[in-house]
Structures are given as structure tokens and as C-alpha cells.
Amino acid sequence: MHVKLGDTVKVISGHDKGKVGEITEIIKHNSKVVIREINLKTKHVKSRSEDEPGQIVKIEAPIHSSNVMLYSKDQKVASRVGHETLDMVKGVENWKKAVKEKEKATEAVVVAS
């Protein structure tokens, strides 16, 4: 799966499209993730005893992992991520959009000079 527990993600489809949140739970067998304060559903809870009243609770429902994209708080951009293995390093993440913007900036500096 392309996201991990604790990652900041942006929802790219569905009724919560455009919202940003943190992953709180991952369900691996069906590739779904639960994101804090996103995709809230209403659950009606029945009372367990006579003196305890029933209640209506908002819960976070899972979203398929294909409907979220990693989000960078620093650069305020959602991007696809590529993984590279370098010498003596376990793995490095490449933010595709950040790399593309950096290349455009360097090209603009070269053209201006």
C-alpha cells in the first residue's frame, strides 16, 4: 500500500474530495484507510440498560486507499510518490510533483540568466 499509519493524505475523490487528514487506521485485507475527521457516518447506538439512554454517534468510516494521495504540509501539495533504493540506504521517497516544480524553477533561472 502506498500510504502508512500517521501519513498526511488528501482525499482525491468522493464527497470529502479536497479534505486533508491523518491516517489513524489501515485495513490491509481490503486496502482501506481510516482518516481522522473525514468520511464521518452517523451510527445509532441502542441503550444497553434501562437507565442508560440511546445515542447518535459520528464515526469515521474507511475509504479505499486509491482515493487518497500523500500530502506534504511543508509544500502544501498532494503528489504521487516514487521509491528508489540507493547504495547503503534502505529506501528513499521521491515526491513527483515537488521534483517537477524544482526542475521548472531551475529551468526558469537558467533561461533568465
Q: How many beta-strand runs? A: 10
pLDDT < 50 runs, ≥5 residues: none
**Order of strands side by side in the largest beta sheet?**
6-3-2-1-7-8
Estimated share of beta-strand residues: 35-45%
| Radius of gyration over all CA atoms, rounded | 20 Å
State the separation between the terminal residues, measured CA to CA.
43 Å
> Which structural category fits the helices and strands?
alpha+beta
The secondary-structure element order is: EEEEEEEEEEH
Number of helices: 1
CATH class of the largest domain: Mainly Beta
**CATH A-level architecture of the largest domain:** Roll
Major pleated sheet: 6 strands, antiparallel
Shape: elongated
The total number of structural domains is 2
Helix content: 10-25%
* CATH fold group of the largest domain: SH3 type barrels
Mean pLDDT across all residues, rounded? 85
